[in-house]
Structure formats: structure tokens, C-alpha cells
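A favour, since you know our C-alpha cells better than I do. Go ahead and set the record down below.
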Amino acid sequence: MKKHYFARKGMNFLKEIVLLFGFYRETMQETSKPAPPARPVPPNVRPPRPRLPFEKGPTDLGSWAYEHRVGLCCMIIAYLAFGIVFVSVKIAMNQERVEGAMYIDLTDMQQALETLQQQVPEQQDEGDDFSNVKNRISDENGRSESVGRTTASTAGGGASSSKSIADFMEGLDEEAAAVAGRVKASQDAFAKGRREEQEMIARSKAQREAKEGEKESGVKQKGSVLISYWLPGRRDVSLYMPAYQCEGGGEVTVNITVNRNGKVVSASMKESSTNSSCINDMAILAARNSRFNVEDTGSDKQSGTITYIFVPQ
């Protein structure tokens, strides 16, 4: 029994020695190996936020257009339809407006008005000739009206035709004389009123120009200037009123030449009732500064006269 006991003890001891030797060997092998390099320590950086499954990431314009292609197509079609309807309505309204418009050609009326405006000064300048023409026209109108009335009243005269003709001629002469008298009276009244109006305008302009001339030159002379002109087919636009700066008075007539634009291109002395060079120079200066209406149909240059009457006070 003792032999077996010691034999087991010896075997266990040997096993422990073998195990210790193996452990020592493994330990020595591990210590003899080089140490692995140390891992670098990452900096203190915040880790990226995790992407959630329902979250949409950033998209470009092409991706957005592709995703919303249905809505974009519907919007484009709606805008095109609205534009087509709007243009069609505008075209229809313009056509109705053109069809309902009325065009009036005013060229003939303007030409007639210009001709009438040209004839009025000529008729006023001609004086007696204009009165004779008006009297003739009035006589003819009176005769025509009397003929119409007398013809209607004597249509069934029958046997008393000779007496009716005599009465008709007598009544015609009386009516023509009455019409001529009324026309003459109206013409005289119109001419008188026209002259008075021009004289009043001339006096007011003369007084105003005289005051301005006195302020500018310092020369104080009392008096007024009356202006009249002869230029067939033209009307005055601006008649320069000379300031009364001269002593004495007189009547000065100046020859003028007017171009198509109504500008006085030349002025020269025609006749004068005074020897004052101051009055003559003022008249020529005023004539050169005068303006008349534009005349496109006439000659390039037209001659006429302007008369200045310096009235001392």
C-alpha cells in the first residue's frame, strides 16, 4: 500500500514539474516577441449624426424637377392655355374696334380753312372791291330768293302774267336794294369795329413798349405808335412795337421782303414824313423784328409794306 502511494505521489509531482516547465517556456516566448505599435489616439471630434431612414438628403435641381415633373407639366400647360385665350380675346377686341371705327379725312377741310384765312386779309385790304363783290353776291341771292317766292305765288296767275312780272321786278329791285343796304351797313360797322380794335391794341402795345423802353434806355418821351401793313395773303403773327424814344412824330412807310417762313429778310425806307433819323431807324428796326404766318404754296419771297405812325403826346 505504501509503495503505491509513493508511486502516485511521484507521478503527480512529475506532472506538475512538466506543467511548470511548459508554462515557463511559453512565458519566455511571449516576452521575447516585440511589442506591437501603439494605436494613435483620435482627436476629440464629434462623430457624424446618424442619418435617419425617413430623412431626405440634399437634392439638385435636376432631381427636384424629375420628382415634380407632373406638377411642372400641369403648370406649363395651364399657363400656355391662359396665354392663348388672352391673345385670342385681344385680337377679337381689336378687330371689333377697327370695324366700328370711323375715319375722317381732314386734309380738304384744312386746305379750305387755310384758303379762307388767306382770302380774309386780301378781302379786307381790297376794301371797295370786296364790298362790290359782296353786294353782287347779296343781290344775286336776293334775286334768287325773290324768284322762288314770286314763282310760287304766280304759278296760277294765268291771264295777269304781265302785271305779275312787273310787280315781281319792282319787288325784286326793292328787296335787292334793302339787302345791299343791310350788307353795306354791316360791312361798315365791321370795318369800323376792326379799326377801333386795332387802334386800341396798338395803343396798349405802344404804351407797354414805351414804358419798357424808358426803363431800358432812360429816355422819357411821351407818345404812341400805330402800325398798319400791306402784305396780300398773309396775316401778322408778331408785329414788333417800337418804343417811343424819339422827339416829335411822323409817318414812316418801310418796304419789307418776307420769306415762306414769315420772317422779314430785308427792310428799307420807302417814304417818311419826318427828317428824324431816330424815328426812321426805329421803324426799320421794328419792321425787321416783325413776323408773319408761314406760306408754303406761295413764292419764296413776298414784298409788302409796313407803315408806322408815331403820334406825339
